[in-house]
Known about the structure:
Radius of gyration: 20 Å
Strand order of the largest sheet: 1-2-4-3
Low-confidence stretches: none
Number of helices: 6
Amino acid sequence: MSPLGPLERSLIYHPAKSAAGVASRQAPDLEDAHFESADGTQLHGIFMDHPNPVAVALWMHGNAGNVSHRIDSLRLLNQRHRLAVLVFDYRGYGRSEGDGIPTQLLKEAATELAPSLAKLLNKSFQTGTTPQEWRDATITPIYKQKGKKSDPSNYRPISLLPIISKV
Length: 167
């Protein structure tokens, strides 16, 4: 093991997959914000309005934890700086859907990423271990376009895997 291991692990972010509840339940001045990205991925955030904002801040969160862990900072921006603030989690973090790695990034950086991904995947195969995040799937029911929508048998399950699992 590298003597730099603890330092390396401390520099890598560890996002929390689930947000700690609905924002409006945590505080009445917070509002859950749900919206769709251009590719249809559902994203989640928290909005804090200000009665007289001097500006609106858009905070794209993608570091340790999730947006529900940033409420104190949200309030500071809101109260001290008179900002209306929308903070949202990147895809795959908190209650935002997706796996955090946009498909387009893998396509555009394929040549540069291929050697590192190959090493990582080969190591996984050699050791017989796979990160849990690569094995977890989100099961989504898709309507078959026939029969009553209220009947569960008229849906088929689709397994959504992280994009890295499909490489």
